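Treating backbone geometry as a discrete language has practical consequences that deserve illustration. Part of our work consisted of pairing the sequence of a single chain with a tokenised description of its backbone. We regard such an encoding as a compact summary of how the chain folds. The amino acid sequence and the backbone structure tokens for this protein are reproduced below.
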Amino acid sequence: MTQHLTGIRADRKHSYHSIEQTAVELRKLLGLGPLDQFDALKFFDQIVPEMTVECRAGNIRLYEAVEECPQEGLTRWNNDLGVLELVLSERTYGSLQDDKVRARSTVAHECGHACLHTDQIIRLGGMNLSSQVAFHRERNPHQACEDTEWQANAFGSALLMPAEGVERLFARLGRVSAFALTETFGVSLEAATYRIGTYERSLGH
């Protein structure tokens, strides 16, 4: 079955394994062990304003923002401030404060865009609105590993449920269990099921 892709072609291809490694590096910087939950609220409120990401332009600062917007979250370039903004809708931020799993996944997903697509977001941010619309409309066929949304989904999944933690959990249980992932990492059953698939692919199982 052909996978339905929802993003645009990314500047670079990324395999499950390379995305996994990027997520692992961030978890290490956050001081998280393999079975520790990712604290999305703390990350958004306290860590993001102190973070930078590397790109062709150098080290770019991140900034968090909450505003009324139709999307649950987005990542954009603020040309006036020269920062990359992780934006949550007011509704999503309220859900994040209530520790809702979908809001936690949104933060992890947008973090994936910030880490993997920095140069592309900056380039798009420099276009006028009509150029951006044309860019998104004229999508060329591309593989899943080249798709921006696929990459961000894979990153968010690995950030929330690292492969080493998944492996330890399944070794302890003696079986693969999506329910065990939901309880350990605080994710939805849908996200846990998706993660099992990426886990198996990233490790070549």
